[in-house]
Amino acid sequence: METLLNDFSPGLFVMQIVILIILLFLMKKFAWKPILNSLEERETGIEEALAAAENARKEMQNLQADNERLIKEARAEREEIMKEARSISDVLIATAKEDAKEVTSGLIEKAQLVINQEKQAALAEIKKSVAELSIGIAETVIKKELSNKKEQLALVEELLNDVTLN
Amino acid sequence: MKVAQKTIKFLTIAVIAIITSTTFASEAGEKGQPQSDGGQVNTQAEVKAYIKHHLKDSHDFTLFSYSTDAGERKHFGFPLPVILWSSEGLVAFMSSEFHHNDDGHVLVEKKGLKFAKIHSKIYEIEKGAVAVSFDKSEHATNAQKPLDLSITKSVVGILFAGFLMLFGFSRLARQYKSREVPRGFGRVLEPLVIYVRDEIARPNIGEKKYKKFMGFLLTVFFFIWILNLLGLTPLGFNVTGQIAVTVCLALFTMVIYMTNGSKDFWAHTLWMPGVPYILRPVLAVIELAGFVLIKPFSLLVRLFANITAGHFVVMSLIALMVTMKEAFGPVASTGMSLVLALFIMVIEILVAFLQAFIFTMLSSLFIGMAVEEHEHH
Amino acid sequence: MYNLIGAGLIVIGGGIGLGQIGGKAMEGIARQPEAAGKIQTAMIIIGALLEGLAFGALILGK
């Protein structure tokens, strides 16, 4: 301890205090303040830039989500339109088919009616001619006054043959 | 700007050259005089004296010295101004007037006062005395020390470190005006500043209050570090190994944390809550002694002792090549001392940083203790 | 002479303390390697406090 106190130089101590105070003042003014300030500025700048980048990323995500939503909506709309078109076409086809059926069935009915009428008419004519024929046959048969049965039968046969030929 | 810098460089070199060239030849000591200031060292006692001399502050800047064949001592270096606050006021002269004498035999007369240099200290001899008289333990009996405000080697070292810091960091500061990221040597300095801020100040003082102390902490950190490293160069500075310097640094830390103490700090120091009333004054004395005496004392002693011990060990290991020459032969002793000194030197480089770090770290820890505001529960 | 004995005692005490600090810090780092940085800083601080104590005693005894 004694040697330590002996080594202590008061002059150096005073010089060191003076120099250190001056050094502290000068360093604070010319070095530490600008350095620390610009470091801080830079750090806040970096932080802000990072935050901005984060924001931009989020915005991008939002935009992408929007886009996707839009695409989905468009797709859904298209689907709906397609569905509607399909149903309209189905309805159209169905009505067309029905119409056609109606028309054809009407035609058929008409045809059947005509056929029936023709048939009736033909039948009536046939009946008439059969009656006329039978009357004619009967007339001739009666007219000839048949002598024998054999001849009578042959005559009927002949007449019937004539009828079929007619 | 560049031209100006070049001229300044040229001028400094020219000034140094002129000073040294005028002093080299004239620096010749007497033959046979015991030399403790860089004379030949052969024995263990001489080595010890040499190391002791080195560890002290010096009034001239001697880079090396040698003996001519005629036995003359030649010193290579330059003298430094001696400024004394004596009983007759301010006295100033160059240290070359002592002719490298370190045991009080050469007297310098100024303003009717006689001065002598004994073991790196300048004494003012009492009026009427012709020579210094010593007692048995070689203390001067008829002389006392004036306030020695000389530009000693340590002061040169302090100024050198200060200029180095101012130059380097103001350049770094100027760089920020034109660009975001510094270039060149600034790239090395910037992470160091950030290191001190983020690893030392912020966690110990606290996010809110650290800014106020950054100037002091950064200055002290780089000041100590640069001077520690300068001490390892062959220039032979031993600034942080001067007790006066470390006392000053510790005193600054003490003043800073005492003046910035928060209300809570004073309450906890002087009137500790939650302790019986009888114990409180006792605790206050202990706490106060801790903050005023013990903490600064441990700070200053740690730095001083580490650097002194480092210098001592390195110089002793280098001296092995002299002291072990007879036992092992010149080659083996030189090789051994080289290897050992190199090894310790590497450790000392680490210690140079570590001591600067620890001084700053503990300073910020103490400041943190003082400014901390407790949350009351 | 007594100075030297005292210095030896101080060195013994300091050595034991430093050994404890270093050993425990190593154990801590081995247990939690991710906390190595914090443990190292704490170790250095405590080592420094011990060193201050030991150096203080050495210098007071000198």
Automatic annotation (TrEMBL), chain A:
GO terms for molecular function: proton-transporting ATP synthase activity, rotational mechanism; proton-transporting ATPase activity, rotational mechanism. It is found in: Cell membrane; Endomembrane system. InterPro entries: ATP_synth_B-like_membr_sf, ATP_synth_b/b'su_bac/chlpt, ATP_synth_F0_bsu_bac, ATP_synthase_B_chain. The keyword Ion transport applies. Component of the F(0) channel, it forms part of the peripheral stalk, linking F(1) to F(0). The b'-subunit is a diverged and duplicated form of b found in plants and photosynthetic bacteria. F(1)F(0) ATP synthase produces ATP from ADP in the presence of a proton or sodium gradient. F-type ATPases consist of two structural domains, F(1) containing the extramembraneous catalytic core and F(0) containing the membrane proton channel, linked together by a central stalk and a peripheral stalk. During catalysis, ATP synthesis in the catalytic domain of F(1) is coupled via a rotary mechanism of the central stalk subunits to proton translocation. GO terms for cellular component: endomembrane system; plasma membrane; proton-transporting ATP synthase complex. Pfam families: ATP-synt_B. Residues 36-91 form a coiled coil. Belongs to the ATPase B chain family. The chain crosses the membrane at residues 12-32. It is a single-pass membrane protein. F-type ATPases have 2 components, F(1) - the catalytic core - and F(0) - the membrane proton channel. F(1) has five subunits: alpha(3), beta(3), gamma(1), delta(1), epsilon(1). F(0) has four main subunits: a(1), b(2) and c(10-14). The alpha and beta chains form an alternating ring which encloses part of the gamma chain. F(1) is attached to F(0) by a central stalk formed by the gamma and epsilon chains, while a peripheral stalk is formed by the delta and b chains. CDD domains: ATP-synt_Fo_b (cd06503). SUPFAM superfamilies: F1F0 ATP synthase subunit B, membrane domain (SSF81573). This is ATP synthase subunit b.
TrEMBL record, chain B:
Keywords: ATP synthesis, Cell membrane, CF(0), Hydrogen ion transport, Ion transport, Membrane, Signal, Transmembrane, Transmembrane helix, Transport. NCBIfam families: ATP_synt_6_or_A. This is ATP synthase subunit a. It is a multi-pass membrane protein. It comes from Polaribacter irgensii 23-P. Residues 1-25 form the signal peptide. Key component of the proton channel; it plays a direct role in the translocation of protons across the membrane. The keyword Transmembrane helix applies. The keyword Transcription regulation does not apply. InterPro entries: ATP_synth_F0_asu, ATP_synth_F0_asu_bact/mt, F0_ATP_A_sf. GO terms for molecular function: proton-transporting ATP synthase activity, rotational mechanism. Pfam families: ATP-synt_A. GO terms for cellular component: plasma membrane; proton-transporting ATP synthase complex. The chain crosses the membrane at residues 154-173, 213-233, 239-258, 270-294, 300-320. Belongs to the ATPase A chain family. It is found in: Cell membrane; Membrane. Its main location: membrane. CDD domains: ATP-synt_Fo_a_6.
TrEMBL record, chain C:
InterPro entries: ATP_synth_csu_bac/chlpt (IPR005953), ATP_synth_F0_csu (IPR000454), ATP_synth_F0_csu_DDCD_BS (IPR020537), ATP_synth_F0_csu_sf (IPR038662), ATPase_proteolipid_c-like_dom (IPR002379), F/V-ATP_Csub_sf (IPR035921). This is ATP synthase F(0) sector subunit c. Pfam families: ATP-synt_C (PF00137). F(1)F(0) ATP synthase produces ATP from ADP in the presence of a proton or sodium gradient. F-type ATPases consist of two structural domains, F(1) containing the extramembraneous catalytic core and F(0) containing the membrane proton channel, linked together by a central stalk and a peripheral stalk. During catalysis, ATP synthesis in the catalytic domain of F(1) is coupled via a rotary mechanism of the central stalk subunits to proton translocation. GO terms for molecular function: hydrolase activity; lipid binding; proton transmembrane transporter activity. PROSITE patterns: ATPASE_C. It comes from Algibacter lectus. GO terms for biological process: proton motive force-driven ATP synthesis. Gene3D superfamilies: F1F0 ATP synthase subunit C. The keyword Membrane applies. The keyword Transcription does not apply. Belongs to the ATPase C chain family. Residues 5-60 form the V-ATPase proteolipid subunit C-like domain.
